[in-house]
Structures are given as structure tokens and as C-alpha cells.
Amino acid sequence: MADGEEDLPRDAKSVKTLLKSMGVENYEPRVVHQFLELWYRYAVDVITDAQVYSEHAGKSIIDSDDVKLAIQSKVNFDFSQPPPREVLLELARETNKIPLPKSLSDPSMALPPEADTLINPNYQLAISKKRTNEAVEETEEDEGGSDSKPNPSQEPRTDLHQNTPQRVSFPIGPQRPR
Q: How far is it, in rounded angstroms, from Cα 119 to Cα 104?
């Protein structure tokens, strides 16, 4: 055996033997761990499903019929066969009968009109109009620096519409000439 292979668990040795029997000589060591994780997850799923089927049938223990049913349901619902080649060719013929939309006038890149694409996202930002510190300083300079108490009617007035956010929309990405 190779160096360090005697330290491997029995399941890891099985994965290495399986890979070797399929003609796979070079692989990363992580591949063995990934296969083991897949096997363990699959086994846990099958046993869990078998337990559910056993409980549904009113049995106190899981028997081989429950495990077979769990495996069959996994095969039926988790793994699917691709459609036959003839079906795919017929679907391709039907799809290709529909003409493509007109392309943009730019001959270097054939793209459909922007109205027919989904690559033009739009963002809205809420920008609030708050008073800046400069405006406060200007107001204090206008009062002339008098030491008397300011009259409430002379205090700077804040309009209600200054605190309402303003919405700005813009497209992202480079703009193409029209």
C-alpha cells in the first residue's frame, strides 16, 4: 500500500479502490472526502425516509421493504433521465422557427433592442435635504453677533419640505449610444 493509505478509514479506501477501478489515477485528496460526504448524506436520507415509511405503516422497526421504497423514491424524484435526443431536436426545431428580435444598429455587437432585455436595472436613492453646517454659520453671522437673547421670530426657519427625501433614479452600467 502507498504511504499513509493504511491510516485511511475503510470507507475512504473503498472510494480510492472505486476511483482506481474506473481508471482515475490522478485526483485531489479532497475528492475522497467529497465522495464520503455524498455517501453519508445519501445513506442518512434513505434511512430517514425508510423510518418515515415504517412509522406510516405502523411498524415498530424498519424492514427491507421500507429501505427499498425509500431508495426507489430517491431514484424517482432525485435523479432524472434527460429526454431522448429526438425530443430535444424537435423542441429545438420548434424554438428555432421563431425569429429573433431585431438587433441594434451597431454592427459590432448583435444585441436585441434595450426594450427586450433585462440588463438595464434601475435604482432609486432617497436623498434627504438636510441643512448644512454652512447654512447655520451664515445665519449666525447675519444676526450680527448680538449678545441679547434671540427673538423666537428671528430664529432660522426650517421649511417642512427640506426634510422630505428626494428620489433620484439612474441606470447603472455604461450608456450605449442610441
A: 15
- Each domain of the chain, given as residue ranges in start order, spans 5-80
Contact of 62 with 47, CB cutoff 8 Å: yes
Task: Give the span between the Cα atoms of 62 and 71, in whole angstroms.
Answer: 13
Identity of the residue numbered 80: S
Angstrom distance (rounded) from CA 44 to CA 41: 5
Cβ–Cβ < 8 Å for 128, 163: yes
Question: Which residue type is seen at 97?
Answer: K
What is the pTM assigned to this prediction?
Answer: 0.43
Average pLDDT taken over every residue of the chain? 76
CB 164 within 8 A of CB 129: yes
Task: Dig out the grid coordinates for 13 from the structure.
Answer: 479506501
Please, are residues 167 and 124 in contact by the beta-carbon 8 Å criterion? yes
Residue 78 pLDDT: 79
User: Which segments of 23-177 are extended strands (E)?
Assistant: 122-128, 165-171
Instruction: Kindly state the helix (H) or strand (E) to which residue 111 belongs, with its residue range.
Output: none
**Superfamily (CATH) of domain 5-80:** Histone, subunit A (1.10.20.10)
pLDDT digits (tens, 9 = 90+) for 108-123: 766 666 766 766 655 6
